[in-house]
Amino acid sequence: MSQPALLVLEDGRSFAGTSYGATGSTFGEAVFTTGMTGYQETLTDPSYHRQIVTQTAPHIGNTGINDEDDESQKIWVAGYVVRDPARVPSNWRAKRSLDDQLKGQEIVGISGIDTRALTRHLRERGAMRAGISTEILDPAELLQKVLEQPPMVGADLASEVTTFEPYVVPAEGEKRFTVVALDLGIKTMTPKRMSERGIEVHVMPANTSLDEILAVNPDGIFMSNGPGDPETTEHPTTLLKELLQRGKPYFGICFGNQVFGRALGLGTFKLKYGHRGINQPVLDRATGKVEITAQNHGFAVDAPIDSVVETPYGTAEVSHVSLNDNVVEGLKLTGHDGRVLAFSVQYHPEAAAGPHDSAYLFDRFVELMEGRN
Amino acid sequence: MPRRTDIDSVLVIGSGPIVIGQACEFDYSGTQACRVLREEGFRVVLVNSNPATIMTDPEFADATYVEPITPEYVEKVIEKERPNALLATLGGQTALNAAIALHDNGVLEKYGVELIGASVDAIQRGENRESFKQIVEKLGAETARSVICHTIDDVMGAAEQLGYPLVVRPSFTMGGVGSGMAYDEADLRRIAGAGLHASPTTEVLIEESILGWKEYELEVMRDKADNVVIICSIENVDPMGVHTGDSVTVAPAMTLTDREYQVMRDLAIGIIREVGVDTGGCNIQFAVNPEDGRLIVIEMNPRVSRSSALASKATGFPIAKIAAKVAIGYTLDEIPNDITRQTPASFEPTLDYVVVKVPRFAFEKFPAADARLTTHMKSVGEAMAIGRNYTEALQKALRSLEKPEARFSWAGQPASELEPLLEAIKTPQDGRLRIVMDAIRAGATPEQIFDATKIDPWFVDQLYLIHETALQVAAAPRMTPDVIKLAKRHGFSDLQLAEIRGLTEDVVRGVRQALGIRPVYKTVDTCAAEFKAETPYHYSSYDEETEVAPRDTPAVLILGSGPNRIGQGIEFDYSCVHASMALREAGYCTVMVNCNPETVSTDYDTSDRLYFEPLTCEDVLEIVYAELQAGPVAGVIVQLGGQTPLGLAQRLADAGVPIVGTSPEAIHLAEERGAFGKVLADAKLPAPKHGTAMSAEAAHEVAEEIGFPVLVRPSYVLGGRGMEIVYSSAELTAALDRLSAGSGSWEHPVLIDRFLDDAVEIDVDGLFDGEELFLGGVMEHIEEAGVHSGDSSCALPPITLGNADIENIRKSTEAIARGVGVRGLLNVQYALAGDVLYVLEANPRASRTVPFVSKATATPLAKAAARVMLGASIAALREEGMLPATGDGGTLPPTTPIAVKEAVMPFNRFRTIDGSSVDTVLGPEMKSTGEVMGIDDTFGTAFAKSQAGASQPLPINGKVFVSVANRDKRHMIFPVKRLADLGFQIYATEGTADVLRRNGVEAVTVRKSSQGPGPNGEPTIVQMVQDGELNLIVNTPIGITQGGSPRIDGYEIRSAAVARNIPCITTVQGLAAAVQGIEAQRAGDIGVRSLQDWVPRIRGV
């Protein structure tokens, strides 16, 4: 029979449910994601490191787990909250059930709770620390443990998710460019999208030095998404400043957008409850077109939306904004001649999970390296 | 980009009468469009022949033309109104076809009317199979292998190439008309032959079978800046082979990985771009092979569809409204999402709940029809339910159908034999999921279920989950809170739990409520709670946190009419919506309860609060409770939604719910024969002799005493279900058997009435406040008594009644209203035989004719009724201006135009099991799905318009075939003679021809079908009809038909007429009306006039 489980938030609200996945106790920042598809990609997205992820879609696990859709080597979420887990997976690619996968990777989860009530709570009160346990079923006791956990603000997590050793994702077809991708929590699909465009991607650990990067003689620099507070990104920010100084074309995604902002002298801040979903509308301010994007971020860049910022590397401006709440969703650096030198977006053009509307950004990176823009 | 400033007026075309495949979803979309266009300052001109729609209310357009949607009539409207633009993508296939015709015949160009929403090229690219196929291939995707055919020879060639089974799909038809699955050559010849005929371009597609594949649909929206969003994904539980309108469907898709979903999304976006729908919505269907994921694009609709309505209700994203906005120039990011108010419409809704739609069929009305489900849509309505999981949503949806046999039941022992059940579920049919559950009860394995049905294993497992939950409930030593909560979480009703536990529903409810286990109400918010919702669009779930906001304003709950069915459709939704509008204006908080996704009532804009919930006693009681927690409740309205809420009235009242308007006791007084007889006796009103019986023996006694013919029917039904006219004792025995389904007993008594041959039937809608009667309208039926009032055409004002008759009707109606104790609407049916006005029946509720009467008399009857129910007097409403200051529908001035209502029948949708058409004879059981109105100065013209609106336009010359029953021969002479004088060639069978000749009418004698072709190859009448040689058929039945086994010679003629769509008149009175209509058409140009223009004439100013 099902085993009881308890979820407690740091403000004391608790939800009693049923154990899902592994048993035990787990802690992290409680967030919610609104995607209706793509739980396998979500679970294996390193940006969710140390987070307890609530799926607002009630049925999870319906298509099981397959061997193709993982976005990294493992499940990163600290805990998993769902309403109605599937009892049997059904998909021609499914190899095993999600339940087994969670158990196998010792991910503690909870099911059967009012996930909408939890989501509304997080929306009103903001993302906060939480714990799930199948061992401690007394809310007061579990709350005590939750309050002992470190908050997400100030957390430097890149070092915990980055690759230990550099590796190369070869270009598909004829190799046209070499790019160094700094792994701050990179997803499998990101280098793939580049390699599809003739880019040989050198994925390097977060603590890689400038010399090590330059040694590859890259045509462009890429920084990935990743977990944690961008204010703690001393090393990547310094690195990026050096690389911008050297005129290296740059493309950043998510955390890479925040690092870019900081390198340009802009601030970052924590959003109340973040953007996590695959239905987020973003306006490309240059074209006036809307793209539906995949997003997963709890922090954002603080930049003036209607004016430019002069930086030592050129003129910076906000290129994309969220149509939901005007949060900065992209930055662009142009030189004196108006040429784009570097750019980044807060959302996920690699889109796994999510819509492919923004795949053109990888083409733009290619154009940037070609000097065509 | 703001709205276009280069256009000032827009012509909107509606979808005409409700037919299978095109129902009130287009009233919903059209109403939204009209509302948007007017808000944006356009002059809105509307053409729609359907008076039961909200969109044809005069306040929704500047000029409302209730005129036939044919190129000829729409051209007249264009000529008169000179609109700059035409919006045709919101009125279904009818509007789209009319727009294409007006483009093709040069009218749009001649008057400089721009087609907005989708261009003609885009419509043709999307609907033409070949060009669509090329587009899909260009995008690197596949369509099913297929061949386009224009002749039967082409079709046979294609069959050789592709092999059987094959799918036949005619081009440019709606609801899959004429499509079907052919397993062999005979099938193929029949289906493809009909399909070639049904297609306006004589084109069918012959296609490889992808039977059993998973089926999906995406709703897509695009603006002129090329922003594209996907509104909703829908997955069919019934795999490929069943029309999506007949399938159980789920939103969002349940069994797709993100990769697969994104491939579909990319394709959908590519397709809408390539097809070139640049300002509007469309839906695209896909099939997926469950074995290997091979994806096939099935088709697209370059317009708003039934699925769009479902998707709008399922997500809270109002597709038609947004489609209208992008059509006039806005981009999606400029349009606010009115549920969140802080986010734009350029986003993709995300759901934190599950939506299930189930179809509702009416095979019981067409017993001869083939009830197997195919690619040809047969359902007449649908119910939708929302739950926090699939099991909850599915069980809610099934009980929303109001068919006890549709929901799952664990009463009694499981079936002892599994094999017959497994065999049965191989064939898609109405109620298949119930049979699947019965098979599970009988021990079927999931593999057996999948093999028989190809229903995805995940959905199959959900059925096992429901079954296992039922077993847990059964096995529990006591009804503990945990057990009840578990069952409720999976959608079990109190009634189902009662069955399982051997208790009564009330006991289960009592225990549950005592334990404090009640549903919470969540909100449909388009964003899975990411943003705060401003629109109270609720659904119940047994979850933790409720979202019903407290309020101070007193609430009025309006119970809607549930899924559309024959006898209860859009007309009742009309009354509910009107009540909501009137009471909102009067300062109440209006709360709508309904489960029909097609309707205007379930638009979250219609009422202050919307509960998308089943209309069962349990579900309604819980809503009442939730609203009582939120604030004061002034009352619940049960009178406007038809029989569904009326049937709940007593139980709700017993549970302490305040019912406003006519009390449940008064409702009972009218429904119960004995009690009503006393009301009539007290008022000294004559009724046909009648009696009630609870046994066959008693029924025979009553019938003998009354004298044949008699009308036999069950009590407490709507739409004349099971009603028959019986001419002999033997027929009575057969009729009683049918009523009791062979069991010999009935739940409610059987009513037996003397049937009045040759009487004029009269329908009256009135309003009574306890003091004063407001006679809303008096309608004179064109057919004699015996044809169900919903199926007969009628005229208002009555065309042959004198003032004395009207006064008599007024007095009788008032006496009944007073005697019964009506507060609100009352519908009375009378039969005028000689000088005696018999009362046939009285219904203390809104009737089907309320919208027609309201439009014909320019009086908002349903609005006034709602106010009366809440205590306003008719005098006060007169003063307020809602009702005319003096007079009523019985005192209309002579300048009042004649409005004719004509019923529209679904006969062409059904085939018997051997593939021929079902019979078209009208009788006491209602069969029509919709209605049209023709309005003009004289009866003939109005009648001609009504026939054109019902897609049965009267000919102005040509060949008429006449064959009538003996009792009708006398009455047909004059009208037929008139036709001959007008130059029609008359054809008749022997007997009729003789009578005509003796009366000086030359008639060509034609061979009966039973005589076979003549020695020199003279064709039979059936062959002549099939060959399309005739322009009009007059055939009155000899005796009656029942049980789908026609006993009369005319059946073949009438069914051939249906197949060829030749107007077929089955009553002598109808013939007389037709002659007047034909004369009017021949007299010259028939004009068009908007309802707004008629008002001064109706008011007599």
Please describe what this structure looks like.
The complex is a heterodimer of chains A (373) and B (1101). Chain A has 373 residues and is α/β, with parallel strands linked by helices. Chain A folds into two domains: 4-147, Glucose Oxidase, domain 1 (3-Layer(bba) Sandwich); 158-370, 3-Layer(aba) Sandwich (Rossmann fold). Chain A contains ten helices and 20 strands. Helices cover 37% and strands 19% of the residues of chain B. Chain B folds into seven domains: 9-118, Rossmann fold; 145-209, 2-Layer Sandwich (Dna Ligase, domain 1), CATH 3.30.1490; 357-514, Carbamoyl Phosphate Synthetase, Chain A, domain 4 (Orthogonal Bundle), CATH 1.10.1030; 520-660, Rossmann fold (3-Layer(aba) Sandwich); 661-688 and 756-892, D-amino Acid Aminotransferase, Chain A, domain 1 (2-Layer Sandwich); 691-740, ATP-grasp fold, A domain (Dna Ligase, domain 1, 2-Layer Sandwich), CATH 3.30.1490.20; 902-1082, Rossmann fold, CATH 3.40.50. Residues 1040-1048 of chain B have low confidence and may be disordered. In chain B, α15 packs across α16 and α18 packs across α19 (505-514). The interface between A and B is large, with 55 and 56 residues.
